[in-house]
Every structure is written in structure tokens, then in C-alpha cells.
Design a protein that fits this description.
With about 200 residues, the protein is of the alpha/beta class. It has a single domain, classed as Isochorismatase-like (Rossmann fold, 3-Layer(aba) Sandwich), CATH 3.40.50.850. Helices cover about 30% and strands about 20% of the residues. It contains 6 helices and 6 strands, in the order βααβαβαβαβαβ. It has helices at about 35, 50-65, 90-95, 130-140, 150-165, 180-195; strands at about 25-30, 70-75, 115-120, 140-150, 170-175, 195-200. The protein has a 6-stranded parallel β-sheet with strand order 3-2-1-4-5-6, with helices on both faces. β5 (about 170-175), α6 (about 180-195) and β6 (about 195-200) form a beta-alpha-beta unit. The chain is globular and about 50 Å long.
Length: about 200
């Protein structure tokens, strides 16, 4: 039987990370890839195709303001070796967003510029096991505006972690999609409870 051992001396709480400094805003576009957006794709999110123009307009507007545009995408190995254990069986039956395939590419109508920041995330949150937090701090970003798919999964996970890291956060409600209206509205309400601004 396992028995817990007492640790020597008093436990020390790690110092909190410093809050982000600067006044710049980043628009964080999550998972707007063909396999999550296109009609008939393996993991199509309902309503994802309809939000492309709204996201494109936000990108254009915020670029003109000097804001940072961040493209966060999820890609998988063909053998599923980098897929979470809980969804690996489903992935192996019907692979999606496989690295190097069209399904993993951004949808038509959303075009990164050289000065944008692009990253591949290994799980739901764009901050998990990436250097996104470091890159944002280096760019003087203290505010994040989130959009993309799926609100109830990757967008939510990313924005919750952003709040925990000290960023001021907003979600563009017309620029997110989820599996149905109930999931969309419930997740927006939950995020609002975390003091994330919901911009209509």
C-alpha cells in the first residue's frame, strides 16, 4: 500500500509570475483550419464557415491599429502519436488536421502576414507547452481578443489560461462557433463569469 511521506521543512509557495506589461492587444485566432471548418470535413464545427468574414474583418481592423495577429492551429501526426489519449481511438478511425495535409491548413479567406505570429499547439490551449506567453510578453501584449473554434474546447481552454496568466481578455461573440447554440451560449456565459468581456 502506498504511504505518503512527509516532506522535510515547511512547504513554500512559488512566487507568482509577473503580470503582462505593455498596452498592445493581440487577436488570437484559434483552429480556423479546413478540417474544422469546411462542409463535410471530419471535425466540422457548425457555424464555423459563417464566421470567416467576421474574423477576416477583425484581422484587417486590428492590423491597421497595430495590434498583433496570432494564428494558433492544431496539427496531428498521421499515426496519432501526439493525440490526447482520450480521443486517440476516434482520431485513428477518422484522422483530421494531419500535418502536411490540406485539412490542417487555414481556411481560404484568412491569410497570415509575415509579421503575424503563428504557432502549432499540442493540445486544447494555445498556451499549453508552447512559448506563446513569452512571445506575447516580448511583444508588449497585455490584452487578448479571442475568436475561432471550437468555443467549448480550444477557444475556452485558451482564454481561461490567458486569464490565469494575467491578461485582460475579450471574446468576439460573432467570431466564435460551437457544436450548437446551447453550447455556444453556455460557454459564453461561463467565460463572462470569469470576467472575460464578451463583445457582441
Amino acid at each position: 500500500m502506498y504511504a505518503a511521506r512527509s516532506l522535510p521543512g515547511p512547504l513554500q509557495v512559488s512566487a507568482a509570475a509577473p503580470l503582462p506589461e505593455g498596452s498592445r492587444t493581440a487577436l488570437l485566432v484559434v483552429d480556423m483550419q479546413n478540417d474544422f471548418v469546411e462542409t463535410g470535413s471530419p471535425r466540422q464545427v457548425p457555424g464555423a464557415k459563417e464566421i470567416i468574414p467576421t474574423i477576416a474583418n477583425a484581422v484587417s481592423r486590428m492590423r491597421m491599429q497595430g495590434d498583433l495577429i496570432v494564428w494558433a492551429c492544431r496539427t496531428h501526426s498521421a499515426d496519432g502519436s501526439n493525440v490526447e489519449a482520450a480521443r486517440k481511438p476516434q482520431f485513428l478511425r477518422n484522422p483530421y488536421a494531419v500535418s502536411g495535409t490540406r485539412g490542417a491548413e487555414l481556411v481560404d479567406g484568412l491569410e497570415p502576414w509575415p509579421e503575424d505570429l503563428s504557432l502549432v499547439k499540442p493540445s486544447y490551449s494555445a498556451f499549453f507547452r508552447t512559448d506563446l506567453d513569452l512571445k506575447l510578453r516580448e511583444a508588449g501584449v497585455s490584452k487578448i481578443v479571442g475568436c475561432g473554434v471550437d468555443l467549448s474546447r480550444c477557444v475556452r481552454a485558451t482564454m481561461v489560461e490567458a486569464v490565469s496568466l494575467g491578461y485582460e481578455c475579450t471574446v468576439l461573440a460573432p467570431a466564435v462557433a460551437s457544436r450548437d447554440d446551447q453550447a455556444l451560449n453556455s460557454n459564453l456565459a461561463d467565460l463572462a463569469d470569469l470576467d472575460i468581456v464578451i463583445e457582441e
